[in-house]
Every structure is written in structure tokens, then in C-alpha cells.
Automatic annotation (TrEMBL):
UniProt cross-references to InterPro entries, sorted A to Z: Glyco_trans_2-like, Nucleotide-diphossugar_trans
Glycosyltransferase 2-like domain span: 7-177
Pfam families in the cross-refs: Glycos_transf_2
Source organism: Sciurus vulgaris
A molecular function GO annotation: hexosyltransferase activity
Residues annotated as transmembrane: none
Organism superkingdom: Eukaryota
Protein name (record): UDP-GlcNAc:betaGal beta-1,3-N-acetylglucosaminyltransferase like 1
Length: 347
């Protein structure tokens, strides 16, 4: 059949609860081009394979080529490996990533394909609908409402990639240029590492502003298995690599736990650029200084703690968005700063 326009990349591990709905959503795509589904079964022990075999003729009957690979070793090799394998066995010029517990809206492939053809070196995302509806409200709002410039400036936050992996769509050529995914398995944030590599290579980030994915939340998902400290370390390194070189000095906004943790995590060279902490908490400001006890240098660094109005940009913000009832956002807005140039979010 030659190569398809788009391959849907579907790694599967014990997904029998969701697979029917997921595969139904592949069948329902209104994309006019040629489409392929590439499934890689990562040692599932449930009925996943039976469900896939059941759907294969239905999908092929409607013109979707289905490629199924996998292994049945005692233990799974992880999502990085599975995605790489699913991509390797597929042939589409474009890749549409899909998680087995999610479901696509009918226009997903069509609309993201359209965007990807126009932007061949970008990762294309989309808006999502969360299921169950009330779960992770702050995160969902962040995914759906970042402004286009913020897709590049908010890449240092704990939320991770500014377009989320289950919504990714990109050209195979660009994926090959950036990738593959890290195959370290559980405990490796393979999507974050790929996203950073994509940005290092000058890739763009674009979101189709329509809701094209039903994005399921369950507390036991793989997403929750990566240690926060691992991600923290990668984020600090990336901040130091991408943002801090262009600043000769900066202020850390938050003299509390998160701000001090960031300060302690920096290399000595980056740490010397920190001219102050700033805060709204009078008790912290009254202390006047943060003394870094863990320092190798003598005398130990003493960093001033200022009221945010007395501090000077640029700022690295270590305050969680949305958690102060809007007070932090109002304070920030009152300074009339430009995101990216005058401040960056790191929280």
C-alpha cells in the first residue's frame, strides 16, 4: 500500500478497560488522507490483545492499515521503548501519538495534520477535555489556555511540556531528527527529555485551539511514577542551559521553601547571579537575609530578602500559579513585565 500520510502511534500495556473506546475513536476519524494504526503491545497480561485482534478487521475494512507488534516477556519495557517500536514499525509521513486510555475527537488527525504540514518542525498539540471532568483543574486550564508565546516561555514549570504528550502530532522526519525517546523505562520522564531536545534543536510548539482529545485521569497512571526529584533536576539543568546564560543577575521570587530549594540546586556559577530573594511575607522580609549554610565558599553567601516592589527583574518565579487566590498574579501584573524577558515561571 506504500506509505500512509499519518500513523497513529499507540503503545499498549494492560489497557483492556479503555481500548474499545480508544480504537472506536481511531475508526471515527474524518481525515481524508491515508491513515495507519501502529500498535505496540508491551507485555500486556490482560485482554488487550484480544480487543486489538477484534478491531483489526473493522479498522482495515474502513481503509486504515493496522500494524501490530509487541512482546510477551514477563515484564514491560516501558513507554519510551514501546513508542519507539511503534514508530519504527510504522510508515506514515506524520505521527499522531495516542495513549490507550484516551479517546480522540473525530477531527483530531485532520486538524493536527493540517497544522503539521504548515509547521513541519513543530510539535502540534491540542486542547483536551479531562475525564473525570473536575480532576486536575489547574493543570487542565494550563494545558488549554497558555497563550502562544507561553508555549515557549513556560517550558520550565513542574507541569512539564507545554503541549502534553498524549496530544502530540509531528512529522516523522522531525521526530527522527530529535528522537528517539529515552528507553530507561519507569522513572524516566521520556516525554520531558524529548521535549527539551526538541527545543534545543530549534523546534516550534503549536496548539490547535480545539478540544480534540478526551484525556483520562487516574491516580495510578504511569505519569505518576516518575520521581519528582528526578524531574526537578532535569528542569533546573534546562533552566541553567536555556535561560540563565542571557541574564547577568536575577531575583528568585519566593523566599520560602521552593525558592530556597531552587537556589541550593543551582551550580555555583548560577548561584552567584542571584542578587536577591523577594516575597510578600513580612516575616521573611524582616529576616533581611538568607544565609546559605551548605555553601563551599567562605564567607557563606548571604542573599538579601526584599519586598517584591523593592526587587528588580529579571525574576525566576517559584510561586505556584492559581494557589494564592489571584494575589500573586495581581502583584506580578502590577509590575508590567514581559514574560520571557523579565520573568520566567519555575514552579
Amino acid at each position: 500500500p506504500g506509505r500512509s500520510d499519518t500513523s497513529v502511534i499507540l503503545p499498549v500495556h494492560n489497557a483492556d478497560l479503555w481500548l474499545d473506546e480508544c480504537l472506536e475513536s481511531v475508526l471515527q476519524q474524518d481525515f481524508e488522507g491515508t491513515m495507519e494504526l501502529s500498535v505496540f503491545n508491551d507485555a500486556s497480561k490482560d485482554k488487550s490483545m484480544t480487543i486489538i485482534e477484534k478491531w483489526k478487521p473493522k479498522l482495515e475494512g474502513s481503509g486504515i492499515l493496522v500494524v501490530v507488534g509487541g512482546h510477551d516477556s514477563p515484564s514491560p519495557r516501558g513507554v519510551g521503548y514501546s513508542k519507539n517500536q511503534a514508530i519504527a514499525q510504522s510508515s506514515g509521513a506524520y505521527l499522531c501519538f495516542l495513549d490507550s486510555d484516551d479517546a480522540m475527537m473525530p477531527g483530531r488527525v485532520r486538524l493536527q495534520y493540517e497544522a503539521a504540514v504548515q509547521h513541519p518542525t513543530s510539535i502540534i498539540g491540542c486542547r483536551v477535555r479531562r475525564d473525570p471532568p473536575g480532576s486536575t483543574e489547574r493543570y487542565t486550564r494550563w494545558i488549554n489556555q497558555l497563550a502562544p508565546p507561553q508555549l515557549l516561555t513556560q517550558v520550565f514549570t513542574a507541569h512539564g511540556p507545554t503541549v502534553i504528550m498524549p496530544t502530540w502530532f509531528c512529522s516523522r522526519a522531525w521526530f527522527s531528527h530529535v528522537g528517539p525517546f529515552d528507553e530507561g523505562g519507569q522513572g524516566v520522564p521520556e516525554d520531558l527529555l524529548f521535549f527539551y531536545q526538541h527545543l534545543r534543536k530549534g523546534g516550534g510548539v503549536l496548539r490547535v485551539d480545539q478540544t480534540l482529545l478526551l484525556y483520562r485521569h487516574h491516580p495510578h497512571a504511569a505519569t505518576h511514577s516518575v520521581l519528582e526529584t528526578t524531574i526537578w533536576t532535569h528542569r533546573v539543568r534546562f533552566l541553567e542551559e536555556r535561560a540563565l546564560p542571557s541574564w547577568t543577575s536575577f531575583t528568585i521570587w519566593n523566599a520560602g521553601k521552593q525558592g530556597r530549594r531552587l537556589y541550593r540546586s543551582l551550580t555555583a556559577a548560577s548561584r552567584r547571579k542571584v542578587v536577591a530573594f523577594c516575597d510578600v511575607d513580612e516575616n521573611k522580609i524582616r529576616k533581611g537575609f538568607y544565609c546559605y549554610e551548605g555553601a563551599q565558599e567562605r564567607p557563606k553567601p548571604r542573599v538579601p530578602i526584599l519586598h517584591f516592589r523593592a526587587a528588580r527583574p529579571p525574576f525566576v518565579l517559584c510561586v505556584k500559579l492559581d494557589l494564592t487566590g489571584g494575589e500573586f498574579e495581581d502583584n506580578l501584573r502590577s509590575l508590567h513585565l514581559q514574560e520571557g524577558r523579565d520573568f520566567l515561571h519555575f514552579s
